[in-house]
């Protein structure tokens, strides 16, 4: 049997809306037999002939199985190629009982449909040229997006901003590759069709652009998955209270909408559209010892993963002691690429806030009372400020997929080989081989180059019905 | 402030599809400002003017908030009165990320929408005369339906079969009431506009019909909520093993469809479209004592709720002992309206099945091995046979709502008063008062008579978005 990935002869069906009970649910059917199947099962009210229904027109009627009504439904035809998959598609909007949803799927399957595999509708859209591979991946990212920035990145990628640029670069490189291969055909005559200076220019432009994209991944990845934040400090300094205070402030905003569970916001906090992922440093939190002495490498490992560290201490601690502790801590972790923010807690116990503190430790210090929820909004603002560059960048082309990141690095490597080759005046054969490698890696991003395994990996991540 | 129940000036929005993440989600907007709002927010591709989009036509475009894309969506206008609510409605089909769903709802609310209360779309459909109250209730039942019979009952009720008959009967009664009230206006003249013989005829017809409907409730209620089945018997007779065997046989069928949880089938088993609700008689099951001696009234109470009792015993028990036990048991429970079926378990331990058994106890006896899953299908068939009449009845008008049941009983009572009154030749005043009471109760079923509290009770049961 063929790999199901390429099985596009079948007519497939799946639930398109979330599993469960709702007011309505939508079932999607796609494939060559869609219309024949629905013509038999769907009976529009008002004696309308199914074949006479125009594309994109919503029609009310009954879905009948052997004259027995399965449900009263709204049916919409999307005639190829003007559909999501590029095939004939029908969307059935039915009553949202789980029983009815099952029944309609059963009836469709009894009439020749196959249940769609995960991502199979989008796979067909890709195979039918409705979108390239990077756009298809963005659909999955869009569905998984949980913050304004991850949503913006996915949305831009889905609209094709990134793909278009990659395709343009690839097309230019392809021209050169073709010329160099042409030289090979005339190798006896020692001609040079491909202008080496122009090739070097293109290689330079591409390297600069690819390097920018590769560098954007660090930001893209954290914007997509949440910026890692660690709250650390000695026991009883109030870390849990602070975490609760931070989450409580925001919780009300989120739980306005029914169905948002506490689970999803306990780890990730979205402030003004940017998600912050709080790293669990429980080992450190529960330790009876000071951070300098705990010696648990695993906890340090977690701290190293953080982009932002909130270092918490008791505001009443003597300033020299803090200074010493922080200096030691900074030596232990490489904090060059991190933002270290000090949180002086328990200001409710102080008579006045020590003004000269900042000069001592040379780090931004926020004075708060986690218990009384005083100045908690300052922490949110500071977290946001720490990534303000990133939020802007989300409006540029940002690489947020590790697959694209890997492919860009491989492309850059091959281009550097080409660059060296031109300088060293190597043979057209070698140049051509490196150019082909670069074209290959670049092509995997948009799906001009692809294979079963790659497609399987990408579409396997999708939910069924998309 | 007015009761939100009648607040129909607002434009409302809600998620129509189940909460969660899916390929797509649908958000519904209804009210006078729907089109003005969407004209501002929705930007169709291809420079189409929003106002030029015809009703029921699906259009692709972007939902923008201050030029920033919120999502790429499909939008469908349903122009009043050709919509679910009878108002201007727009359905927005968006990417199924929970974040996007929240965002779109937020944008709609920021632009003047109010989040719909539970059932508010259907309430508006009722207030705008798109359906009567009994049909509206059927929508909620349809969404909650979990078997073919509960689905059939709700579907028929939604299509209006039951309402139409109730309305016809009420209209006929209303004619008589009007004539009798006319007599009151001419009371000085002692005229008789309303023919008393014809009234008696109508009352007889109505009483017969109402009685049938009232009687159908016992069946309608169990078909809707599941036919209660109790498995009882001495400890270690194999009740749990049997329950597992019964559920395992059917489980495979149900779990074909992803998302069906074990929870939903542990208590209710659907055989050929009919649901059986297995009553927990744990107290009895765990008892170390025999059923005759357990004396726990609560357990007997549960047994009394059952329509079908599966009485289980060890097939090796001496037949006289069984006979005695069963006779005693039948004396303790009133089994006139119940079906008592004997299950002789552990036939795997017997050399041969005692053929003369049935004659002894005069009850259908099934010989099974729960452990080896032998003859389990016989139990399913017997359960189904026990309600075969009921399944047929589901195709008739069946009362499945306790609210309707109560209203029918009250109507019948009032009609009997009218009947008596006519025979006793009471004054038109008294007749008229009883007729009005009957008309009132009958009117509450279809919603010709209604009030805030009634509507609140009914639509409060709905999910948000319907």
Which features would summarize this protein structure in a list?
50% helix, Rossmann fold, 6-stranded mixed sheet, 3 domains, 7-stranded mixed sheet, 13 strands, 466 residues, homodimer, 19 helices, Gyrase A, domain 2, flat
Account of the protein in words:
Chain A is flat, with a radius of gyration of 29 Å. The first copy, chain A, has 19 helices and 13 strands. Chain A folds into three domains: 4-130, Gyrase A, domain 2 (2-Layer Sandwich); 138-220 and 401-447, Four Helix Bundle (Hemerythrin (Met), subunit A) (Up-down Bundle), CATH 1.20.120.430; 238-309 and 320-389, Rossmann fold (3-Layer(aba) Sandwich). Chain A is an alpha/beta fold and 466 residues long. Chain A has a seven-stranded mixed sheet with strand order 3-4-5-6-2-1-7. The longest helix of chain A has 30 residues, at 196-225. Residues 250-266, 282-287 and 290-295 of chain A have low confidence and may be disordered. The first copy, chain A, has helices at residues 34-41, 98-110, 120-127, 133-144, 148-159, 161-185, 196-225, 239-254, 262-267, 282-286, 291-294, 297-305, 319-332, 357-361, 376-386, 388-393, 402-423, 428-446, 452-460; strands at residues 12-15, 24-30, 42-44, 58-65, 68-78, 89-95, 114-115, 227-233, 268-271, 274-279, 308-314, 339-345, 365-367. Helices cover 50% and strands 16% of the residues of chain A. Chains A and B meet through strand 2, strand 5, helix 2, helix 4 and helix 5 of A and strand 2, strand 5, helix 2, helix 4 and helix 5 of B.
């Amino acid at each position: 049997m063929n790999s199901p990935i390429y099985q596009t002869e079948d007519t497939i069906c799946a639930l398109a809306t979330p599993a469960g009970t709702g007011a309505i649910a939508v079932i999607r059917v796609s494939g060559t037999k869609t219309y024949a199947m629905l013509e038999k099962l769907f009976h529009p009210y008002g004696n309308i002939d199914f074949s006479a229904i125009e594309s994109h027109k919503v029609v009310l009627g009954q879905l009948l199985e052997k004259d027995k009504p399965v449900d009263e439904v709204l049916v919409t035809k999307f005639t190829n190629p003007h559909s999501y998959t590029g095939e004939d598609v029908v969307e059935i909007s039915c009553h949202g009982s789980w029983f009815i949803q099952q029944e309609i799927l059963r009836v469709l399957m009894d009439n020749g449909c196959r249940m769609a595999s995960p991502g199979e509708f989008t796979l067909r859209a890709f195979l039918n040229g409705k979108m390239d591979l990077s756009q298809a991946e963005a659909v999955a990212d869009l569905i998984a997006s949980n913050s304004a920035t991850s949503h913006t990145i996915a949305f831009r990628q889905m609209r094709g901003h990134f793909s278009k640029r990659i395709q343009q670069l690839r097309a230019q490189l392809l021209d050169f590759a073709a010329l160099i291969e042409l030289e090979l055909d005339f190798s006896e005559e020692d001609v040079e069709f491909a202008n080496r200076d122009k090739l070097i220019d293109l290689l330079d432009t591409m390297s600069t652009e690819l390097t920018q994209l590769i560098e954007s991944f660090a930001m893209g990845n954290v914007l997509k998955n949440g910026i890692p934040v660690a709250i650390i400090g000695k026991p009883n300094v109030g870390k849990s209270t602070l975490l609760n205070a931070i989450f409580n402030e925001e919780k009300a905003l989120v739980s306005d909408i029914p169905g948002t569970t506490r689970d999803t916001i306990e780890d990730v906090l979205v402030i003004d559209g940017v998600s912050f992922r709080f790293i669990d440093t429980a080992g450190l939190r529960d330790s009876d010892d000071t951070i300098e002495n705990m010696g648990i490498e695993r906890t340090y490992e977690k701290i190293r993963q953080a982009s932002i560290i909130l270092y918490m201490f008791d505001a009443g601690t003597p300033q020299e002691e803090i200074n010493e502790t922080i200096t030691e801590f900074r030596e232990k972790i490489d904090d060059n690429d991190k933002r270290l923010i000090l949180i002086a807690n328990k200001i409710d116990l102080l008579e006045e806030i020590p003004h000269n503190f900042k000069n001592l430790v040379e780090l931004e210090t926020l004075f708060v009372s986690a218990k009384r929820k005083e100045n908690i909004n300052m922490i949110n603002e500071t977290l946001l400020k720490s990534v303000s560059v990133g939020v802007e960048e989300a409006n540029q082309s940002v690489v947020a997929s590790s697959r694209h990141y890997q492919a860009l690095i491989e492309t850059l490597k091959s281009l550097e080989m080409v660059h060296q080759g031109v300088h060293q005046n190597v043979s057209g054969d070698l140049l051509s081989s490196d150019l082909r490698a670069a074209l290959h890696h670049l092509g995997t991003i948009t799906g001009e180059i692809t294979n079963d395994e790659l497609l399987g990996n990408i579409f396997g991540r999708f939910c069924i019905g998309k």
